[in-house]
Structures are given as structure tokens and as C-alpha cells.
# Entry
Amino acid sequence: MTSRDPLLRFEGAARAYGDVLAVAGVTCSIAAGSFVALVGASGSGKSTLLKMVNTLVEPTAGRVLFGGEDVASLHPAHLRRRVGYVFQGIGLFPHMSVAENIAIGPRLTGEKLPDKRIAELLELVELEPAMGSRMPDELSGGQRQRVGVARALAGEPELLLMDEPFGALDPLTRDALGTKVRELHDTLGLTTVMVTHDMAEALLLADRVLVMDAGALVADESPRALLAGAGGEIAQGLVSVPRQQAERLAALEGVGETRR
Amino acid sequence: MGDIWDILPGLGDKLAAHVVLSASAIGLAILIALPMAVWASRSPLVSRLALSLASLVQTIPALALLALFFPLLLSLRAVFGEGLPTLGFLPALLALTLYALLPILRNAVTAQANLDPGVLEAADGVGMTRWQKLTLVEAPLSAPFIMAGIRTASVWTIGAATLATTIGQPSLGDPIFAGLQTQNWALVLAGCLASAGLALAADNLLWVIEVGLARRSRLQTFGGMAVVAIGITAALWAQGSGNDERRIVIASKQFSEQYILAQLIGGRLEAAGYAVEYRDGLGSAVVHSAVASSSIDISVDYTGTIWTNYLGRKDNPGREAMYETIRDWEWRENGVRVLGRLGFENAYAFAMRGERARELRVASLADLAAVAPNLTVGGDPEFFERPEWIAVRDAYGLRFARSRNFAPTFMYNALQSGEADVISAYTSDGRIAADKLVVLEDPEGALPSYDAMIMLSPRIAADEGVIAALTPLVGAIPVEAMREANLAVDREDEAKLTPKQAAAELAEKAGF
# Structure
């Protein structure tokens, strides 16, 4: 952790839907430059917490500070243009070409993104610049999410929010795109918060893992500490899944060798 | 039916009026429906309310909806002043707009509800304002569906606009109604062909735009829109090039005699140098108020009709007293000048086939009452609601097995085919003699007299030129001459005449 003020801070942030408390008062800070994974089972409140940052969800109590300012005091459209957002639904605009999709953020502020910059962004996510003229329905799922990432990066955001970004992709694409995003995070100096239900993905990509359960933050550890057994019962339950899978795979390999 | 090709080119005016009316109604409906759809997409309550209201409007028959705007606008004159038109374009526009709302609104609301939630989340996520989201995402994605709704609305509206004729708005319904009443099938077909052709053309053109929107082809979308715009502009220009000065508007109700007399009156006024316009096929109930409010300038009405329907009288003081009372009442209450009586009566009378009457031994309404429980009575669409019928029914205790409504021209066919045993005929009708019908006597004098009168609206009540041109008609048309003219128009053999030709013959016989 640096001595700088946190880029993002949750202060008792809570969200109720009727009687159900989706997020039950979360307090934590996220430093600029960090890659934070927000992990938990379905319904643990991780997506709701993430969406409080770009005000797609409004807290019913507490507040969220972005760069020291309460997000509720900012104009939602202006705030969201400073925050890249990538989500499982991808949500490319089907009536716009790939290039138009990527350029949409700057276009909203009346700025025209130069073709050169669009080509650069496509290259960043490992797509051919010629792809720019294609329509979204001509792309594969993985290509679409790459465009989604390029669109999120087009406005040079201070913060990148990702909500199960790779959830709908096949394992190979998922792994490649995850690695790519981490690489972009490092080279572009981003601050990234990624929601995932996959602990393996969180451990491999993030510098810091937040674990949520029933709307509350139950663990806040580095991947190394989690693997070393820190974080408590719920966090360890989640860590045990990939660990056991790895052990079973290793055992399978061992069996194969003895039979040879 | 070769005549159709002679009639069609003459329908240019009606076509232009039809296009302008339909396009205005659809345009207005779009202007109302789209903001409503946006509002509805933000509030389920508004959505439910708007859709049920639009559906409710659809359940009202188009003809009734059009007619309802007349009294509505008349009562609104208290707010907007006497200048508010109650007949013609305005009520037709409003009724058709209401009618066109549903398909546009429903498609727009459905399109919005079916937008991919992921796309909407992305729109918010990239930082669109509400307006940007609407214009950059929601509108373009909904456009093909909304266009489909506009297409449906256009076909409906163009079809329903033919009914605007009944409230005095020229449209392609004019030849249809005129043809139906005078059994001029070529005229009916020409009107139907023209309006169906227009509906098909609009449907196809809008389809081109719809596909253009769906394929995101600007060329196709804007090309289609340009053609639509050219069509509407041409219609507007064709309409605007007509004479702007107020013409003398002559009404006719929905039967042959009215068409003939309108032509007779119009012919004389034209000869006197007046510009004349005909509003054919008006609903009977509309005509009187239309003349009183100067929406129409001249009509031919009947003493019995005014006596029972507008004076609300049930007594029968005799022909002369009735006429004088009406003349004074019209002048005093409405500022309408009753120029005079034409010289014939078109009274309601009950008629039967001669054979059937002899078979049942019926010569008078009193005889009829005894056998009525086994008979079917036929009347024109308004007859069984009229006070005359109620008076006759009660005076003789008439109880029929069945009563059926027919358009006036079809009543006589119904009598011949046995679908009705007795009908409410009109004494000036040529078919009474031609079909050898027996007119039943009215010993109780329950049916009032029906002298045909020329009525002048307050606007031209003092116009000396009009009065001079029409006064010679007073007392000039004996019932035999009127019957002959009516028969000439109603008959279906080669001696059939158009109302205009019959009017010319009638004028000749009357000595003009």
C-alpha cells in the first residue's frame, strides 16, 4: 500500500431490496494501481457492491468515495465516463460497428476518437484493426468481449470495473483474455476491480482478494496469504475448490506415470 | 364496369384530400404516440393506462367515433369560440388520429420492453445521459418495430378515412357512399380501388423504410421517406391549388333524392356564378346542426323530421301549420332561413308487395296490427329509433316478429326477396310505383307530413343572389317528377342515370 489517498473507498455502503439486504454495510479502501478481485458465491452481493461505484446501483445507506468525492454528488453520466465498465452481458450496441462501439464514450462528450487510436485499442486487445468495420453480430463471444474491454479503455479511465467479464466465455478464451487484461492493467497503470465467482481466476490475476458472503466482507487478503490458509472459513472454502482440483489432476498424472 | 376507368381519373381531388387527411392523422398520432411510449417505458402504470385507453378507442366503430366528434366539437365552441369547425377536416383528423394511436403506441412500447437489457446496461455504463440513451440506443433499435406499427396504422387509417365522408370531409369515401346510395357500382368500385391502391402503396413504401431501418441502410430509409414526402407534398399542392375562397357547401343525406336535389340546387347556383361544393352522404342527424352552425350552407330537409326530432313535437296540427311553425322556429332559434317548400312530400309510409297485402287482407296500418306478430318489418338504419316509428307503433299497437335495418336502397330488394314483409318506404320513392307496392293507409294520422324544404344557413340566409337563384325551385317539383327522377337513379337497367343527369332532367321538366 502506498501512502497516497485511496482511489476508491466504501464507507458502510449498504443496499437493501425490500427486506433483503444485498450489501450489508461494507467499509474498505482500494489504492490506486491495485488489481482487486471481489469473490463470493452467487448472491453474496459482490456485483451490487461493484455497481455502487458507477452508480448503476444506489446505496440505501453509507457512501462510496471516488477520488475523495461521494459518487452520489457527481453527475452519473460524467462519473461513468471516467470509469471503464466491462460486464458479462458485454452489451455491444448491435446497430454500431466495432469502431463506433469503441469510440462511443468519447463521442458522448463530443470528442471524435481518431481512427489511429481505434486501431491502437484494437491491437491492445489483440484484434486486427480491420475488425473495426465489422458489426458485433459477426464476431465470436471472445472477440466481442475483447471489443468490450477496448471500449472500456477508450476513454482512458481512472478505474476499470469488471463484473464477471469472462463468465460466458470458453475456458481457453477466458484464460487468454484474463492474462491480457492483467497485462494491460500493468502496462497502462490501471486500477482494476474485478468481480468473479472463480477463486482460481482471482488468485491468479489479482494482487488483493476481497471475499464476500451474505452481503458482508469476510476476508481481505493477498493471494499468497489465502493460499497459506489465511482469511477464515468461507475464504478457505472457496480456495479449497481449485486446490483440490489441482491435487486431483496431479494425482491423475501420477497414476498415469506408474502404469506406464 | 368499363366506366371505372372513366371515373378514376376524376377522383384526383378526393385522392388528394384523402392523402392529406390520412397523412395528417398518422403524423399527429406519431407525435402523440412516441413521447407517450417513452413515458410508458419509464412507468408501468402509464404504459398500462395508455395501452388500455388506445385499445378502448379501437372498440368504438370508426363510423361512430367520427360522428361523436361533431357534438363534442360543438360543445367545445363554448371554449374556443364560434370559429371552431365542427364538420370536415378537424373532426375527421381527430377521430382518425385516435384510431391510429394504438398500433403505433403498442409497437413502440413492445419494442422498448424487448430491448436487450445488456445493451441498456452498457448504455448507462459508458456514461450516456437519458437523452443520449434514448437517441443513440433505444430509438434506433426500436425504429424498425415502430415503423411496423406505423405501417399498420397507415393501412387502417387510409381505410377508415373513407368514412370521413359522413361528417363532411371529402375523401375517397365520397364515390363509395354516393355509389352505394344510387346503386352505381362502378362508382363504388372506383372509390374502393383508389383507397385500396393508396393503402397498398403506403404499406409497401413504409415497408421499404422499415426494412431500410432494420438493415441500417440509410439510402433505403431516406429514399423511402423522400418518396412519402413527395407524395404528401403533391397532395397538399393539388389541394392548395384549388380555389381558396369559401364556396357554397351543399349537403346531401344518404339517399338518391338528396343527391339529385343537391345537384339541382348546385347547378342553379353555378349558373348564377357561385362556386359550389358538395358534401354528399352526410349522416341525417348531422345535417341539421351543420346548417345551423353554417358548416354547411344549404340542405333539403323535411318538415316531419324537424317537427319530431328538433321541435320534439308529437302532435299533428296539419301540413300548413306544421310548416309555418317550423319556418318561424328555425329563423328564431337558429337563424336558418327556410326558403320554401319544393312542392312534394317524402313522407314515411308503410309499403307491402301488392300480392302479399291482398293475401293478408291488409290495406291500412290498423289491418297490419292484426297480422304483424307473424311479419318482419324492414326500416332504414335510423327508422326504429325515430319518434315517427314510436308514434305509429303506439297508435296502432304494432308488434312485429322481427325488425331489420337496411340501407334505403336495399329495403326494396328485401321486400321483393321476402326478407321483409313490410317496409318503411318513402312516398317520393319511384320504386313504389315501379315495384307495384301498396302503401298502407294511416287512418289515425300518426305519421306527420314531410314536405321537402330548402334550408339556408345563417351565413347565406340573407344572400340575395342565392335567394334569387333558388326561389324558382319553390313549389316547382311535384311528387310525380321527383319519383321519376328517383327511379331513374335507383333503377339498375340501362336507363339508369347519375344524380347529375337526373337533376338536369328534373330541371327540364320543372321548366327551367
Remarks:
- DSSP finds ten helices and ten strands in chain A.
- Residues 232-259 of chain A form the longest helix (28 residues).
